[in-house]
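User: Structure tokens for this complex, please. No commentary.
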Amino acid sequence: MHVKLHVWRQAGPTTPGTMETYDAPGISEEMSFLEMLDVVNERLNADGQEPIAFEHDCREGICGSCGMMINGQAHGPQRGTATCQLHMRKFQDGAEIFIEPWRAAAFPVLKDLIVDRSAFDRIVESGGYITAPTGAAPDANLTLIPKEVADAAMDAAACIGCGACVAACPNSAGQLFTAAKINHLNLLPQGQAERYTRVQKMVDTMEEFFGSCTNHGECQEACPKDISIDFIAYMNRDYVKAQLKNRKLLSQD
Amino acid sequence: MALREADRAMATTMERPEIPPINPKRGGTAPWPVTFYRSAVGKKWVMAVTGIMVMGFVFFHAVGNLKVYLGAEDLNHYAEFLQQLLVPILPPTIALWIMRGGLLVAIVFHIHSAYGLTRMNHRANGSGYEQRRHYQAANAASRSMRWTGIVVGLFILFHLADLTFGTLNPDFVRDDVYRNLVASLSRPPVALIYIIANIGLGIHLFHGSWSMFQSLGLNNPRWNSWRKGFAIGFAGLVMVINVSFPIAVLTGVVSATNNPDCVTDGSVIVDCTQYENQEATP
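Assistant:
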């Protein structure tokens, strides 16, 4: 394959960036998107040029490092797939591919395609924990959890924090990430103790950095883990309930 | 063994750069309804609740106006019924004014939240993309909410001036609803405004009446698939009813000259409020 890349190049957080064009001949369609970038970078290195900086780690779709905007779509054209699991066979020979970093006020570009996603850490820090008993690990089936609940919590827990939801959102909203991080705890019995303080704190922290939801559904389409916007509705409901809940009655329904 | 400088740098946690917040935390204490309304999730909840209030009005306004097709007597009688609502518990028109007041408050909050959220979203977007985004799920209705909202807002002002206050209707006679409606909509440019604005309203309602379920947290796999159907049905019904009125007047289906409840002199409408007199004189 022979593709032509238009890549955002930016030397540092404060320097202005620009789109640069790179010719990439001799690409195998069996390569992953990141392997294609590796090949381009090898050639740039050999030419004494600065390679394209991009974030990556596991390359098996579970770490959430490798997000980038490919042809105006977060993680590129394949649904439910992170950039590292996207293969070049999804592109036509001779295709022009536009690659940009995530864009949001909360995700400042550090270099080229790498953004600082630590605003996500601040959301998780504010409430993404549970009160756990100390001592020996409890018996595995001590707390009975209905299958549907366990499945839903697991679906939310699949979030890898890549930031595609924010990147794809026309409002740069962090709702899908935050809803996933709230609900994988709020849906389970073990998460009930902090359920309302968690939603209050995590939503409030989210809104310090991210935009608001207008229910387009773009985040759900972009999510490499296919996380549903149903969780956003659950988060909204718990946030409203948190306003009214008598905290003395938290142990009752 | 002492660590080399480079190893020490590797071993310590990197200093975290500050992310400038788009909505810095506010100090001080405010009552919870105020802090709730300050939050974006709270504003979306308010938008949904006020949206439902206005949807209720829009629905009964459209259905009530279908009496246009029954003739001047029925329509004008219905208009008088609205003024006499809850009489004698309340004096005439008071119930109507209470509902109007509620609607006005709802619309003010709806617009104020939309404005606040739009500002917030623009701040959150940062520098934006070089390449156009390839939208997957966002549709024309969801992406044009701000524009259809502005169209509907301006239309409400025009509509009030045209058929409630009568300042934009040269042939306006107070309380003769049928006559005013026919006189206004038989002007083609005005009819066109009504058609365009009500298509805008339909598009706005289509996204809004689905989106409100999410904003309120009304989400249940048992009936999630009905939400889109409800939105299509509700927005479609209201739009078809509302757009039918200007078309009916322009095509002559609704007119004063062939309506036995109206007195006309040639093509000039003299009066349509004859129903009480007609009952009195056989």
